[in-house]
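WARN retry 2 of 3 for item q-0093 after timeout on previous attempt; input resubmitted unchanged.
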Amino acid sequence: MRYFIELSYFGKDYHGWQRQPNAVTVQETIEKALSTILRKPVLIMGAGRTDAGVHATQMYAHFDWDDDLSLDNKLKNLTYKLNRFLPPDIAIDRIFNVSDEAHTRFDATSRSYLYRIAKRKNPFSTEQAHAIVYDIDLSLMNEAAAALLDYSDFECFSKSKTEVNTYLCDITRAQWLETEDEYHFHITANRFLRNMVRAIVGTLLEIGQGKKPVSWIHEVVKGKSRSQAGSSVPGHGLYLTEIIYPETIYINNGRD
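OK item q-0093 returned
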């Protein structure tokens, strides 16, 4: 049977989500905990990969298990034990059974990210938001961000030497909002390329500083070259915030 894990994590001490040699990752940490509790090796598949230092307020992973864990509060007990076993910077929100064909990565219909920028140096948000010391024009940045919805090929924002089958992404939201202390960039798409959000934010910041005109965003996207876009902003300001799945994957009230 297949089970989804809904979780969140603070990425400061991890070299990203995906398991890799000689580095501590979120995936490996959860797999070790799950295997210890279930007393059998367990591998999990995540909904995507986050880079080193990136956080997630909502992430999903799935694993397969022979027994029906939905009986006798086994899933609630497993959730409780995992949270006791895992470090404080990883939290398991719930575990629920899904259809056997459900896949956390391939079945996701949309993903949303938030990038936080602090308006000034703040010792209480140093690890949660990227601080800038210059003024930016949010209206210009929103104008440029809105233009992204007119395109689908975002090779210009993809990390170099990344093997992907396509650079096509359907962006449905790209918007800057302002709070008292921070600027927030929200973006939603059906899929994202490696380093894409951080590259977009860095590009938009150049427009917001007045270094480049709004029209530059069209040149960057049409150019399809990572070297033409802005620098990537640091990972610690980035959060994966929401992943949406079709209702068909849920069984036994897993949606609740």
